[in-house]
Amino acid sequence: MANPIKKIFPLGFPWQTEDPFLFCVYHLDHYPKGKEDMSPNASLEGRTLGNDFTIKDGWRMYHGQTIPGFPAHPHRGFETITIVNKGFCDHSDSLGAAGRFGEGDVQWMTAGRGVQHSEMFPMLHTDKENTLELFQIWLNLPKANKFVEPHFKMLWHEEIPIVKIENAQVKIIAGSYASVKALDPAPDSWAGITDNDVAIWNIHIDAETEYILPKSNISDVNRTLYFYEGDSITIANTAIRPNYGATLNPNNDISIISGKKPSHLLLLQGKPINEPIAKYGPFVMNTDVEIQKAMQEYRTTQFGGWPWPYTDNVHDRSKGRFAKYPDGTLVKK
């Protein structure tokens, strides 16, 4: 049998991905208690506010000036899947959609022809730390879908299927596992086509146990495993340390043996789109000419403008988890 590991690589910021994925970043910030305005109850002195990506005291402000996060910015030509395992994210966008999600929720947003959104991390707890753990994954759109209408979708954690087996559990954000199917993705997604075998799985393996990762349903997929928490895993007699990833052979079941601590992994898999990619910051198209047109259109139209009072908009502390959709539909959790 062929070696199940094709390559092992260190996890940077962002993580290395393969087609059809463009980008994956892991945020783990041990934020302090919050103030009444939901900002960190700690000094911001010594931070490069507006561009604070260096971990100081266990956390970062990112592009936030008062509250950590990413104020209004544009996207075109791909999708974002934001998985918030711990803490909360406040979403606002140029469609008028908004939401607060976290503690296991997932937001799936299709940028399509263009959207602005902000992602802020409010410090809701004033009596304890506000730890944030999230993944943001960029999934490409094929040329035929680069200009679809933007779409905003919530996958609430109460509804996301989790498969529990003897030594592990698998949270199925996209794809299917052991005949259990994920919730539907956004309507124009590459993940919506079964034959593309797109999978996004968050895998937790008990300490000192073996887990069998099942082979892909098709042979021509890219499959990458990211080991982000634990002390070690072993695949095919090869020890892999945390903060490393591995590209895997998709055609065989793969044994993963966890070390002395539980192991936490993210799996990204999918059939490649195999189209030219031109990228510039938040725009992902097929040619440089299309990138120039995207930049010009954004300067002219602002992709519909910004209907919120602040670029770093956050919602009232009392709101709890909710989603407000572009058509005005409000869902509270």
UniProtKB/TrEMBL annotation:
Pirin C-terminal domain location is: 201-304
Per UniProt, residues of the Pirin N-terminal domain are 61-139
Q: Which SUPFAM superfamilies match?
A: RmlC-like cupins
**PANTHER family, per this entry?**
PIRIN (PTHR13903:SF8), PIRIN-RELATED (PTHR13903)
Q: Would you identify the family this protein belongs to, as annotated?
A: Belongs to the pirin family.
The name this protein carries in UniProt is Pirin family protein
Q: Which organism is it from?
A: Costertonia aggregata
- Where is the organism placed in the taxonomic lineage, from the top? Bacteria, Pseudomonadati, Bacteroidota, Flavobacteriia, Flavobacteriales
